[in-house]
Amino acid sequence: MSEWCVSNVGCGGYTGLYLNGSHPTLEDGVVTREIVGNNAWWWWGYSRECGAYNSKSIRVKACPGDYYVYELVKPIISSPQPMYCAVAFQSISSDPCYNYESLDRPWRANNESGDFICDDMFSWNGWYRLFYYGMDIRMPETCVSSYTCNTDINLWLNDPHPQIEDGVVTREVCGGTYWGSCCDYKFRPIRVKACPGNYYVYELVNQAWWCSGYCTDVNTISQAVSTISPNIFTGSSITLNYDPCNNYNMLDNYWRSTLNYWSMFGYISDHDDTRVEWDGWYQLFINGSSAQMPEWCFYYMSCGGFSSLWLGGSHPRLEDGVVTREVYGTHYDQCSHYRSDPIQVKACPGNYYVYRFTRPTLSIPAPVYCAVPFSTPSVDPCFNYTSLDEPWRSTNNSYYNNYYYYGMCDFNVEWNGWYRMFYNGENAQMPESCVNQGMCGTSEPLSLSGPHPQLEDGVVTRQVCVSSWSGCCDYTSHPIRVKACPGNYYVYEFVKPMFCGAYCVEASSQSISSASTTTETIPSIESITPPITTTAPPVDPCYNYNVLDDSWRATNNQHSSQIMCDTAVSWNGWYRLFIQGQSVQMPDTCVDEYSCGTHAPLWLNGGHPTVEDGVVTRDVCGHWSNNCCAFQSNPIKVKACPGNYYVYEFVSPTGCSLAYCADSSNINSTTTTVTPETTTDET
């Protein structure tokens, strides 16, 4: 039976009953002990009144063979749903002072904070000796400040540590310092033993109680322990007398995959690479397929651990030989919050890499080396792909236009293999820069964080950015593989995103990319789509535009009673601006709020091009709340035309109420002859 206060709604009832005193020894014979129960205010176990209920006393006897017997009686019914409580109490086959696992986790110290690491993520098994960077340390015996030890509810012993002559003892575990009390929560007791050499071992158990974690007390650090130092590479040059490409260990852990991100939602695995005895070189695999370390920031609590480790630089080439690379760990949205010891890397013939992994830095909470798939497709994906032609993925399509409140969601798609992107039958590609939140028919659009590869690059891996309310690339999804193909197109190996977002397609780039019609002949492979003809418009947008003559767009139309919003317009192609028949242009400086018949007027950020510049892309800003670029709307394409006018490829803005402005201060009376059948009146 328990000898300490037990939280309510435990032991199968409501009021947990425990002994109000210690168990007897063999020589004590039969003794009588009081039985008490606690009183709790809240159903989830917060207790301030230990011993609030007194039940009938019982008799207890210690027996040869290390066990106890109890003369149990019916409890007093004044305590609600009383239950006698039991705790595990078993014989120890070997002395735990010499049969323990070392637990060197400096982030558990009571002077550390910032994370919420929950000990129910670890598979506790047996006895542990606590260290702090190789020095002995103990659990605290007194109250610990809230939110320290890098956890939510910090755990400490509610009694002093034992003496050597006490042998194995059981100690109550307290947690929480939130209500002016040092032991707001009562946790499962643990067993402790004092060992020769002035150290302690603890039989730590899974508390399975909210987000709690065992603490260590920096005030108890003692002399350094003489142990064998791990084989850690310090960054100095090492001459190898063997080729690691032919002498490595296979490391095949499916949970190292960056796709293993369910830990973000509470399904945390018990993995920590500081507990691995690293020895030599390793090649990474995921379920038997070749893999490599990611070269970019990845979300924390992925790859089966808490801190996701990634390579702080590109992989080497064959001719580079053995190189040294930094290793970083992610902390929430801070990509390089942690810095581990550098590792050595080598590129090997056969298109794979080997890594000389070492024990990660101990101050990093539960670090794990991450892996991403890295293998050569058996069939060239340039001729073995699925066509993806879904116009709602366009960068100028707001998800507010969809029937779904949160827009489309690629998390629900069963992606399989390689894909080529189209927009209404025309060749298209993913954007390489930030896309505003809410575009591409989804709440969280996905874009490439960097340029597309060249033909000679072959298959490459690219990071995928998530645009959200907090910024352009504050979050990243799973990386994807990309390949440039003959015929000026790309194929993508899409995977299920980490978030409920959608892969974007850049819709407007093809309308001016070519002046000819190209027919692609695709090999006859059963799993691919039929040949597709891509046609680019052969007409210069200077002579193939829509007339946009809306007087309310004038910059001198301020504080209008009718507020306009350009997300409601079905934009299509190129436009030339007029005010009452006179040619004008967009303003390329900040415009006052509440101008142009809208709340946040849109102006061109970057100046207009010259005729010789051809087609250029310009950012578009919206003035609001005394910030000239409070709204960064979707960029547009602009071209300067002979005859001193401009044409614009307008797209839907990012939200309401935003509208494109026409600068009334530079009305140009120059007339230009246009072909009537190629112009329409948008109004």
* Poorly predicted parts: 41-48, 224-238, 263-267, 508-537, 669-683
Q: Mean pLDDT, nearest integer?
A: 81
- Write down the overall geometry: elongated
Give the spatial strand order of the biggest sheet. 4-3-2-1-5
Distance between the termini: 84 Å
In a few lines, what is going on in this structure?
This protein is mainly β. The chain has no helices and 40 strands.
Can you give keywords for this protein?
35% strand; 683 residues; 5-stranded mixed β-sheet
Topology, pairings included?
Layout: E1 15-19, E2 30-40, E3 47-63, E4 67-71, E5 82-84, E6 101-104, E7 128-132, E8 135-136, E9 153-157, E10 168-175, E11 185-195, E12 199-203, E13 212-214, E14 249-252, E15 282-286, E16 289-292, E17 307-311, E18 322-331, E19 334-348, E20 352-356, E21 367-369, E22 372-373, E23 386-389, E24 419-423, E25 426-427, E26 445-448, E27 459-468, E28 471-485, E29 489-493, E30 502-503, E31 517-519, E32 533-535, E33 546-549, E34 575-579, E35 582-583, E36 600-605, E37 615-624, E38 627-641, E39 645-649, E40 658-660
Parallel strand pairs: 1-5, 6-7, 9-13, 14-15, 17-21, 23-24, 26-30, 33-34, 36-40
Antiparallel strand pairs: 1-2, 2-3, 3-4, 7-8, 9-10, 10-11, 11-12, 15-16, 16-22, 17-18, 18-19, 19-20, 24-25, 26-27, 27-28, 28-29, 31-32, 34-35, 36-37, 37-38, 38-39
